[in-house]
Sequence to fold (472 residues):
Amino acid sequence: MRTGRGPRRGGFRWKVPAERDLSSESRFRLPGAAGVCAALLPPEAGGPPSAELAAQVEAYAARLPAAARHGLRAGVAGVQALSVATTGRRLERLPVDRREAVLERLAARPETAHAVEGLKAMVLLVGGAHQRAAEMLAHAAATEPARPDPVLDVTASSGWPDSARADVVVIGSGAGGAMVARTLARAGASVVVLEEGRRYSVHEFRTRHPLDRFADLYRDAGATFALGRPPVALPLGRGVGGSTLVNSGTCYRPPSDVLERWRDQCGVKLADPPALAPYLDEVERTLDVASVPAAVMGRNGELLLAGAQRLGWTAAPLLRNAPGCGGCCQCAIGCPRNAKLGVHLNALPEACAAGARVVSEARVDRLVVDAGERPAWWPAGPTARGSSSVPAPWWSRPAPPRRLRCSAAAGSAHTRRWDATWPCTRRWGRPAASPTPWWRGRVCSRARRSRSSTAARGSSSRPPRPHRAWGR
Fold:
């Protein structure tokens, strides 16, 4: 791999992420945010002071990319405009029920429903994180980590040498990239793994504020979406270990009908279920996959299991890669006990032990292939570039099609050809038992298996009308 500063042929460039001021003094002004906060989490029902919550939302908005920040500002302005147009008053000047009526009017219209959900998600994320931060940090500190951080060969892009060579460059250090890097390094290839985020330690997951962890561990502070009808949120992990740092740890084998479609329609011979089974077994051994213990599921799991039994469903614990899980429900912001076995705790250390190297804080932007020469990767930025001897790159993130379309692979029929999405939906129910906090016990706790498919069943206690349960 060659590295340098000038725009040369047959190379790649990456961008060193700019440091941002993430202090509470750094705020993106959202005129009218106090009214939206008062509508979603009314102080009269036990919510936090609206002005204080609005300031916290503005501080978090400063971490978002420009498009998301301005979209948030437009959404807040639109809600306030509707309030004035329909009631003659701003939201914060209305009684609680009339504030809610304004939001329900917007939520009832398909063209504005998703915007309302986005505003709700932002306010509840910030408000909940600040309200429960002390409890979450105390829970994390109550027990020692299940395992220490492993040894990894990680170099920040700012410290990477001016020139280097590698047989293979793997873009992304998540579930796919780590396994590929391990396999190729063990086969004797020289491997470099490029990762947009930095390396995080279990100490940081145990001591940093939940909202800071969320903002840092997700690309665009969690504001990445695939635009469409409806828009789909893409929670892309940003750190050494990729999205396995922030996923729930659910280990779901591809169904046989999906594998057969890949085999028969896409020509992927390895997708033949009997042929692929040994590889899936190896992945499960690497991740130490096992059923969720009943004690970890908590009350959420008990309620979900009882409901499944009443409906006549066949229910069983989900399979997860979290031996030693304490049920703190902080998977999405970095496990504070190193109990969830992301690839930064297994496949990546094994890849590094076989000679692979990881370059962190290096976001790849573009793929370049010169005629008759090796393919090269061209991340945006002025820091470094390089090439590899393999005929095609392994790109382990779900975001590359846009980058590939503006690169040398634009005409490839294989771009995004074999992608599959796990769709989600939601249904609300009101158990007769007392309210169950979602952060105690695993949220994604049970599964229903039918003859043709498997559907994961998650359990959460978020109320459709949050203000009515805020003070309970």
Summary: DSSP finds 13 helices and 17 strands in the chain. The mean pLDDT is 79. Residues 297-319+431-466 form one domain.
